[in-house]
Amino acid sequence: MKKKLIFGAALLLSLGLAGCGETEKDSKQPVQADAEKSKEEAQKSKILTVGDSAESKDAKFTLKSVSTTDARNQFDETKPNQVIKVEYELENLSDSELPYGMDLTVYDGAGNKMESYALDNSMGAVASGKKVQGVQHFGIMDGGKIEIHYKPVISFDDPAVFEAEVK
After folding, report:
1. Are 144 and 108 in contact (CB under 8 A)?
2. pLDDT confidence of 154, banded at 50, 70, 90?
3. Cα separation of 76 and 72, whole Å?
4. How many domains does the chain have?
5. Which of 100, 138, 140, 149 qualifies as a FRET site for 110, CA 20 to 30 Å off?
6. Is 155 exposed, middle or buried (0-12, 13-18, 19+ CB in 10 A)?
7. In whole angstroms, what is the distance from residue 49 CA to residue 160 CA?
């Protein structure tokens, strides 16, 4: 009788501890997921500007500067009022090469998408763990506030949005 009682108590204690261990493990996972979501949401809601960085799982993008340029492409037929030069740094955080050069989109203050302007624009691929200093030009109709959206070509994530003032 004593052996059955001891065996039963040991069995209940084992099941109780096993249940506690799973509960603790399960309760930690959602907290980590919630913390990661909160970090992503905070980054998305934050207004980024020149000098700020946005990080995804594959890349870290830093907007270095936005300026106007007098340089023009003699063969371009769009004839924008201004051409802006967007300079950035891109760090590859992935395990494979990361293509770049088609990952920026610019919108004017009215929300109109601006066209890429054919000047000395950066395009290529950066090796895993390496950085590249890139340049992209866009034709805009008028100065003022613009939005620059960065989204890696091979990503399904939402773009990082930067705001800049063009004078």
Report:
1. yes
2. confident
3. 8
4. 2
5. 100
6. middle
7. 11
Which residue type occupies 102? M
Residue with tokens 């004017």: 108
Q: What percent of the chain has pLDDT over 90?
A: 56
The overall average pLDDT reported for the chain is 81
pLDDT for residue 149 is more than 80: yes
Identify the helix (H) or strand (E) that includes residue 141.
Answer: none
Distance CA 39, CA 136 (A): 29
Confidence at 159, pLDDT banded by 50, 70, 90: very high
The verdict on 61 and 140 lying in the same domain is yes
Residues with Cβ within 8 Å of residue 92, at least 6 apart in sequence: 58, 59, 98, 126, 127, 128, 129, 130, 131
Shared-domain flag, residues 21 and 80: no
Q: Among all chains, which residue has been given the structure tokens 């960065």? A: 150
| pLDDT for res 17 | 44
Residues 129 and 97: their CA atoms lie apart, in Å, by: 9
Q: What is the rounded distance in angstroms from the CA atom of residue 103 to the CA atom of residue 145?
A: 20
One domain, residues 57 and 109: yes
Q: Output phi, psi for 144, to 5 deg.
A: 115, -160
| pLDDT interval class at 18 (50, 70, 90) | very low
